[in-house]
Design brief:
This protein is about 0% helix and about 55% strand. The protein is mostly beta strands and about 100 residues long. The chain has a single domain, classed as Immunoglobulin-like. A four-stranded mixed sheet has the order 1-7-6-3, with no helix packed on it. The protein has a three-stranded antiparallel sheet with strand order 2-5-4, with no helix packed on it. It is globular. The chain starts with a strand and ends with a strand. Keywords: Protease inhibitor, Thiol protease inhibitor. Pfam families: Inhibitor_I42.
Amino acid sequence: MVDSTTRTLRVLAGHAFVLTLDANPTTGYQWMLSNPLDGRFLTLLSNEFIPPASSGLIGQGGHQQLTFQPLRPGMTSIALKYCRPWDDSDCAHFSFTIVQISG
């Protein structure tokens, strides 16, 4: 079963924001953009895995943090998929975020 999440964010132009999603790279899955960002409104600054604070277990999941920079007022979207980079047909989760950028 594929899991899907939709949310709306209100952010300020010029102020970076972070999307934090559950992830476990030991499974081969990672969060990736499913569609290119609209470069008029957003830039992806970083995409990194944050391990759990107490990493006592090998293969324990953590979080993937994607940091975005809103460039100007307007509305755009971020579409993400949780897939294995080598197998785009086997995606476990999808996340769709509507971003309202104010000045």
